Structure to design on (189 residues):
């Protein structure tokens, strides 16, 4: 249990006594980070994160730059492979009377919060930087890079508009159901 606390406690930042200025933190972790978080997206990996925290009287802005590799399983072959990633994200924590997530980038934290743990943010940004389809590099094609797969057909949408003046003289006029014809008369067309 102490190992769990030790791994995630590396991501604690004491904000209570910080002055209103910019702070820089460098963090790195490996498999233990992913094992301790309750998630099933990534089992192993290694990354380095540079955190730039800017504190002011009303908010904290945190910029995360994370680079590393994670171990994934191919959706096609079920073979494990290493996927490199780079993530460059920002979050804003505004002071308030309660804790609440307003948007993906803005949260309200209680103004008496003594410390924040940024492990959750780092993991979310890593997960968002991973490809939706996990394809082993040896099986990737140009279509995979463009977001298409072999079994998806490209759909071409063609739109054509004809005004009443442009209708073909040769086309027979559509036969209209008499009930609709009566409704059109009521409408005044």
């Amino acid at each position: 249990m102490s190992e769990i606390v030790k791994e995630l406690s590396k991501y604690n930042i004491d904000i209570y006594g910080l002055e209103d200025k910019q702070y820089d933190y460098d963090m790195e972790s490996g498999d233990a980070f992913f094992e301790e978080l309750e998630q099933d997206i990534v089992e192993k990996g290694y990354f380095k994160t540079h955190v730039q925290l800017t504190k002011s009287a009303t908010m904290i802005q945190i910029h995360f730059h994370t680079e590393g590799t994670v171990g994934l399983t191919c959706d096609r072959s079920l073979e494990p492979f290493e996927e490199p990633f780079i993530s460059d994200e920002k979050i804003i924590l505004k002071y308030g009377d309660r804790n609440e997530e307003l948007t993906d980038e803005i949260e309200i934290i209680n103004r008496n919060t003594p410390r924040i743990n940024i492990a959750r943010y780092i993991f979310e940004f890593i997960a968002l930087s991973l490809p939706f389809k996990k394809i082993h590099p040896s099986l990737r094609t140009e279509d995979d890079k463009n977001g298409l797969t072999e079994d998806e057909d490209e759909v071409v949408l063609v739109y054509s508009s004809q005004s009443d003046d442009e209708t073909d003289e040769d086309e027979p006029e559509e036969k209209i159901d008499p009930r609709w014809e009566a409704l059109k008369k009521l409408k005044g067309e």
Observations:
- The radius of gyration is 28 Å.
- The beta strands are 12-14, 22-29, 44-55, 59-73, 80-96, 100-101, 106-110, 115-117.
- Confidence is low (pLDDT under 50) at residues 146-152.
- The chain is about 20% helix and 35% strand.
